[in-house]
Amino acid sequence: MVLMTEQLENAGTENSPSLLEMKNVTVVRSGKKILDSVSLSIRPGEHVAIIGPNGSGKSSLIKTLTKEYHPLARADGLVLKIMGKETWHVFELRKLLGIVSGELQQTCCRQIRVFDVVLSGFFSSIGIYYNHKVTPEMKARAKEVLEFLEISHLTDRLMCELSTGEARKVLIGRALVHDPQALILDEPANSLDLKAMHGFRESVRKIAGSGKNVILITHNLQDVIPEISRVVLIKEGKIFMDGKKEDVLTDRNLSELFSLPVQIIEKGGYYQTCS
């Protein structure tokens, strides 16, 4: 069951290439089809939430986008383009996209200075190494990003000393430092308490307001900020529904997605569920 996205008015982007264009993308891992003929297009500047149960294919979709997973080449009509291009060098691609995930946070929980972690976004590494040529412009940009996220006070702290919420903001800084086209957040609010969740959402809202694409991958409706206007539901590796947020986030749709009775509550642009 698919609700097609209506044409949104977005002056200045109608003739621009899509940030992401997927058609008939199928991915098989360990003999299992984890993405099944997925077709999805996201325009520059569009804020989108991709929601589904655990194991539905959400993270696999992002790993396909970042070339960690590869679609079946024999799929009929296969298209996988980013900014209108089908072929990207993986390091060029990483500069175009800023990605934050719980998996990355575990990797970054080391005795590394916050400032160096943010700087390392220029090199797609975790920390700064002898072969990295850090320029004064890079340092200035890292300071600018820390100020933008209101975490300059953490500059000289070690990542392993930070709270989960603080570390998540630092990783957003690492993702933003090279000025990517889009910020991709994969299950971003896992393990955050209420205060950390509030601070995290405010940071993401600020980024959305700056004009960058925000693509949110989650199973939790509370992660969806008011600036997100489009929601894609994914189930068992397939696009289940795609459309305007207010049309997609209904009791009926979410109950079918999660296979249990769900009631949606909306307040102040934020959504939550009760079952």
Could you describe the 3D structure shown?
The chain has helices at 58-65, 90-96, 102-108, 114-119, 136-148, 164-176, 194-209, 245-248, 251-258, and strands at 20-29, 32-42, 48-51, 79-82, 97-101, 182-186, 213-218, 230-235, 238-244, 263-267, 270-274. The strands form 3 sheets. A 6-stranded mixed β-sheet has the order 5-6-7-3-8-9, with helices on both faces. The chain is an alpha/beta fold and 275 residues long. Helix content is 30%, strand content 25%. α6 packs parallel to α7 (194-209). It has a domain at 44-67 and 89-250: P-loop containing nucleotide triphosphate hydrolases (Rossmann fold, 3-Layer(aba) Sandwich). It has 9 helices and 11 strands.
What does the secondary structure layout of this molecule look like, with pairings?
Blueprint: E1 20-29, E2 32-42, E3 48-51, H1 58-65, E4 79-82, H2 90-96, E5 97-101, H3 102-108, H4 114-119, H5 136-148, H6 164-176, E6 182-186, H7 194-209, E7 213-218, E8 230-235, E9 238-244, H8 245-248, H9 251-258, E10 263-267, E11 270-274
